[in-house]
Amino acid sequence: MGSRCGMLRRDVAAVYYRVILGPRPTPDDFKSARDLGKPPPIRPEQRTLWDGLSVNATEQQARKKARSLREIGHSIGDYIAEVEVPDGAGFAVQRTTASPGHHTIWGPLHLLIQCVRRVVPVDEADS
Length: 127
Description:
The chain is α+β, with helices and mostly antiparallel strands. It has one domain (about 15-120). The protein is built from 2 helices and 6 strands; from the N terminus they run E-H-E-H-E-E-E-E. Strand 4 (about 90-95) and strand 5 (about 100-105) form a beta hairpin. The radius of gyration is 14 Å and the shape is globular. It starts with 14 loop residues before the first strand and ends in a 6-residue tail after the last strand. The relative contact order is 0.31.
């Protein structure tokens, strides 16, 4: 592939799922909490997550997360972007938090919009 996307670690899946706001990915969908101007977390161990981008290992995990947050009045988006993160462009991916399948991606996050393979509605039936 001629993509400018990539990752440093090979021991994790190459495709991740990110909940986004609309049917077309925007640059803001791929900004860290820090880049969006959100205040840093109070707990120091969460500061590295603040600098990265939260994704899930499966579409079903992303869907479950989006629906559960919507139910408590904290919607994070109505669509799921499938993001392929191939080798070679300076991304680091790590399994983070106790949430099933949660990973964090660090690196040139603005390039991830170019790595979106497809977008599906959160409310689409699971395959």
